[in-house]
Amino acid sequence: MRSSQFMDLPFETGEGEGEGRGTLASKVLLVDDEPVVLDICVRLLGREADLVVFPVGSAEEALTLLRDQRIDVLVTDKNLPGMGGVELISEARRMQPALEAVMITAYASSESVIAAFAAGASDYILKPFDDLRVLRAKVRAALERRTERVRTRNGAREVARQAAVLLDAGRDAPEPAHVALETELRNYEETVRLVQQGSVAVVGSSEAVRVLKEARFEVVELPPYSPQLDAADVVVVETGDPQWRTLAERLQGGASDVVLLAGADADLSDLLEAITLRMDLVGYGQANATRVLPEKVRMLLMRRGIQRAQERLTAALDAFRQSIAVTS
């Protein structure tokens, strides 16, 4: 009987073991060069008993801290002396890929929103805050996203671990159950490696279709009213399409993951609304657009594929255990 190698396979690139302990002693790094703003944010988040807050006044200080501390959420101002907030997010995500990042700015523009999300931000806050509780809510939402991502990863790995232990132990079981479990375990491992399995549909951008096809995705361009959209694993919607908001809201209620593709001329209010709706946002028309969109789609397909493989593996594991109970 072969021994599974699943423990060497990451669920999400860059997320190592021991990360993601949820909101228990979660660490928040605040970066702002305005002492008054930093003090207000520290006072607000410092009231949360389960948060450890690290306030610094520059990106350079933040990077020094990131080398020594695991950070769960980075909250940074866009305009900083020296390295700016967008560059800081990009570097922080390179150093700690599991980190969630939130951008704060008093000078919002479509270009800055797109740049922040291209760098790895998952949320955006305008200042001055109309309500200070907005910051706390955004940090909590970021922690929930991180916790859910790690919980899903760990759940999948635990099911695979249990399957491997049973198979390696050589427990007596009917041959069909044994073969089914080993097959699904192998499928799970292959799914982690083959991250581009799944269907992708694009609405409103022939250029996005070209980019994704060059990246070897199974992709098709469809009109916004096509019923085929509901069957796609990932739907990319361009903000230039006049029906993008209605379409995105409808698809979010279904089984598809929705990626909003925003050009440099995208309306700022549309982008902020998309963020509020928790859509995945990808900027287009930039030099790195051919990298950002495929990476986002690849990660969404990877998560969906592993979730499906986990469900099949769980079913095979249950059947294997039942067969052991019957023959015992």
Features:
single chain, 328 residues, alpha/beta, Rossmann fold, five-stranded parallel beta sheet, 50% helix, globular, disordered N terminus, DNA-binding, transcription regulation
How would you portray this structure in words?
It is built from 10 helices and 10 strands. With 328 residues, it is of the alpha/beta class. Among the domains are: 120 residues, Rossmann fold (3-Layer(aba) Sandwich), CATH 3.40.50.2300; 108 residues, 3-Layer(aba) Sandwich (Rossmann fold), CATH 3.40.50. The strands form 2 sheets. It has a 5-stranded parallel β-sheet with strand order 2-1-3-4-5, with helices on both faces. A 5-stranded parallel β-sheet has the order 7-6-8-9-10, sandwiched between helices. α3 links the parallel β3 and β4. The longest helix is centred in the C-terminal third of the chain and has 39 residues. It is globular. The two termini are 21 Å apart. The N terminus is likely disordered.
